[in-house]
Each structure stands twice: as C-alpha cells, then as structure tokens.
Amino acid sequence: MVKKRIKRYDNYMKKFALIMATLMLCALCAPASFGATSAKAETYKRLAGKIIGLDPGHQIKANRTKEPVGPGSKTMKNSVSSGTRGVISRTWEHEINLAVGLKLRDLLEEAGATVVMTRETADVDVPNSERAKMMNEAGADLVLRIHCNGNSKERVHGTSMLVPSGKYCTAIEKESAKAGTAILAAFIEATGSKDEGLRKRSDQTGFNWSTVPVCNIEMGYMTNEATDKLLNTEEYQNICAKALFGGILDYFK
Ligand SMILES: [Zn+2]
Q1: pLDDT score, position 199
Q2: Ligand 1: centre distance to CA 147 (Å)
Q3: For the CA atoms of 62, 63, 66, 70, what is the dihedral angle to 10 degrees?
Q4: Does 83 have pLDDT greater than 70?
Q5: CA of 100 to the centre of ligand 1 (A)
Q6: Residue 46: its pLDDT value, please?
Q7: Which of 6, 12, 17, 219 is most buried, taking the most CB atoms under 10 A from its CB?
Q8: CA 156, 176, 142, 171 torsion: positive or negative?
Q9: Rounded distance from Cα 94 to ligand 1 centre (Å)
Q10: What's the gap in Å between 91 CA and the centre of ligand 1?
C-alpha cells in the first residue's frame, strides 16, 4: 500500500517536473518569437497599401529612336541605351538589373506591398519616358530604377544613387533624395561597397518624366573585375535585393 502510494507520488513528481520544464522553455522562447512576429507585423504595416515601382534598367536590344529628355524638351536622347557589360563575365547589365529586380519584387510582395514592374523579361522594348509614365499612371509611392555602372578605368568601384534634379523635377526632388539616401545607406551597410554618395541628375529621361518620387541605384561597376564577379553570383544578388528592400522599409519608417 505504502509502496503504491510512493510510486503514485513519484509519477506525480515526474509529471510536475515535465510541466515545469515545458513552462520554463516556453518562457525562454516566448520573447524571441514574439519579437520576430512583431517585426514582421511592423514590416507589413509599413508597406500596406504602398505601390512600389521597380524599373530594372535597359533591355535586350537598345532602342536608338530619339525621345525628348523631358516633357516639351527639345533635347533628345536614345529611348533606351544598351547599358554596360561585365569586363570578365561579358554579362549585359540588363540581365543583372532584372535578376536583382525580380528578387526585390518577391521580397516586397511577400511583405504586403503592391509592386509594378516596367519589365519582367529581357525581350521588351519600353522607352525610358514610357517607363516613367507607367509609374505615374500606377500612382507609385516610390520608384526604384535598378542599374549597374561602367567606367573606362577598371579600378573604379563603388555604389552611387542618382536622384532627380532640375526644372522638370522640382516637385519630386525632396522626397526622391530622402528615399535615395535611405536606400543607399542600407545598400552600403549590407554589401560593404564603397559609398559614392548621391548624385543629382537633370539629364535622365526616366527622372524628368516622373511625377512620383524616384531614385536610381548604381549597384556597382561591371567594368571592375571583382564587382563583376560578385554581381554575377546568386548569393550577392540576394544580398543586393535584401539591402534594397531594407532601404525601402527605412524610407517608409
Ligand atoms: Zn544602366
């Protein structure tokens, strides 16, 4: 009888210990999982209802038909230039721009934003003025043009952010610079690329036709051997996309 009672007591203690251990484990895990959930909720909140335009620069074939650099302008430029090319890889810029653009689109959509793309394949023919008009009509809250850079000097490397300036862009200059600053900072932090800063440009058709905030990342120089190699890896493209995503989130803070 006593033995039986001791055994029952033992079982009770074992169950009690198990419950206590489970409770302690939950208490330890709870703050971490709560933190992750609330960060995710915050991300959703920031991007809810936001329309983000992405313009992966260039296309498979340049379009040399001239178009006005801004509404009513007599200055004409090619509709779409061919872009730069990897010094080692020989990859065209339009391919890298699209690869990063599609990854960024997925990240933004997963976080609840509406994404409008100027192109989702290489084989398109969309002039730069048309790209801007697409975004105006979509009512984009922010447009990011995604590019890589080129330079005749192989040693030149780094990342810059082009932002609109000049008579066509007075209404969007301030917001565009604010977005450009946030996105460039996030990109530099995540990639460790050399910070070439913000560059005001009044000669960009894609800026001058825009009525919504827009900026243009020049992720890196494909004419630099090390950068070219990096930009051609899926791993680095993922880092770029995540960095741009983080920068967009910072802008909407
Ligand atoms: Zn470009």
Answers
A1: 98
A2: 4
A3: -80
A4: yes
A5: 13
A6: 92
A7: 219
A8: negative
A9: 7
A10: 13
**Up-side HSE of residue 162: CA atoms within 13 Å toward CB?**
24
Q: What is the mean pLDDT of the chain?
A: 92
Q: Per DSSP, what are the bridge partners of residue 215?
A: 144
202-212 tens-digit pLDDT: 999 999 999 99
Give the amino acid at 175. E
Q: Determine the distance separating the centroid of ligand 1 and the alpha carbon of 80, expressed in angstroms.
A: 9
Distances in whole angstroms, Cα of residue 1 to Cα of each of 8, 13, 51, 145, 165: 11, 18, 75, 82, 92
What per-residue confidence (pLDDT) applies to 40? 85
Q: Which two tokens stand for residue 79?
A: 């509709």
* Rounded distance from Cα 58 to ligand 1 centre (Å): 6
Quote the ligand 1 centre to 190 CA distance (angstroms).
21
Q: Which two tokens stand for residue 175?
A: 């917001």
Residue type, 108: L
Strand stretches in 16-100, DSSP E: 51-56, 63-68, 76-80
